[in-house]
Amino acid sequence: MNDPIAIQQQVFLSLIKKASGTKFGKDHEFGAITSHADFVERVPIRDYEALKPYVEDVVAGKENILWPGKPIYFAKTSGTTSGAKYIPITKTSIKYQVEASRNAILNYIQETGNVDFVDGKMIFLQGSPVLKEKNGVKLGRLSGISAHYVPNYLQKNRLPSWDTNCIEDWETKVDTIVEETINEDMSVIAGIPSWVQMYFERLQDKSGKKVGELFKNFKLFIYGGVNYEPYRAKFEGLIGRKVDSIELFPASEGFFAYQDSQTEKGMLLLLNSGIFYEFVKADEFFVAHPKRITLKQVELGVNYVMIISTDAGLWAYNLGDTIQFISIKPYKIIVSGRIKHFISAFGEHVIAKEVEQAMRQAISATDASINEFTVAPQITPEDEELPYHEWLVEFEKKPSDLSKFIQILDDSLQKQNSYYFDLIDGKILQTLKITAIKQGGFTDYMKSIGKLGGQNKVQRLSNDRKLAEGLSKFKA
To answer: What's the pTM value of the predicted model, to 2 decimals?
Structure first.
């Protein structure tokens, strides 16, 4: 925090030096790189598909390909275009992952003085910790790998049991977790909000009590993976009271940021954790040779694609996430969405942050509450109607005035996105429409495509109709 630019330069030079003898380092003349400009000239931005030839060599058991030696794990994730993705994790990179998780909690204790929760039971809803092996390297989900690094002093308070954590079927697993935890003194609950929500609902169904009444010492909710705001009102309803929360920004590729304040927005970007960051303006990302900048050049409020180079051998790697800086002293960010997850069917380039802000405003101004939603363009509606954005919403409680709810959503989006305003104003698009999805419809849909639970998340925005058409079978 005190010397961020110098720290990032040290990380950059250290990464280049350590990897200069690898196949990737030799192919890209790491020996001649002394500056960021040299790096940009020699190392193009790549996504997983473009880096795949190197990754395949690593997976095949070859050494010194992307990083010296071999990784100690592969984090297996479900890719969209490339099938399964194998993200290398080294001894150093897993150390930074574990440290960041620990520091997020220690930072919370230091800021608030709240420490009682460490004596209660803790649960992290995660993937199975059972690891397979591929050419001498252990393979599993990141959350399952991380389960092996819970320190001994927390093990006695940790739930669920190992056997329960190993259950693969998500619904069976959640039901078993409910059985194991319903009579325990739970103080910390962590996981992706949409799946924690399922756990809370089943607790409430079984006990007839609010979660906060059932767990009187439940003090802290730790989450990551998706924006919590669309779920906050529903969670507070399920819990029956407010609890503190800590937002994390972890991925298989690295642990990037955590919330460092209960009174200020945003997450502190971790600059001394073996990751060198570059940033590209999101609206310039798809042009030829977009400008790549370092931390020193970032501006507040700009939507950037985050590019990373890491001590696990990912180089100028497009993670796919977009972020915005909300502070530069210190450097704090919010996650604004995914570079592939936007709607620009008509040039509007609507992003996740904008639809989530609109939904938050609509909920707070009406009596509605929601479980989940996604947005897609309807380019060719019937009866020669104007095109529109279709919002597929699973309501927990429908608004008593749906037209008012829609108007708040649309007005908010117009205020946030001038392109969308121009398209509505110019009669290119009509006001958005809502398609109600039945209770449990999103869960049923995720189950139908084999992506229920774990680290799987519902895509907030699509530029096509695939997700919308899949959900159409689950209309209310």
So the answer is: 0.80
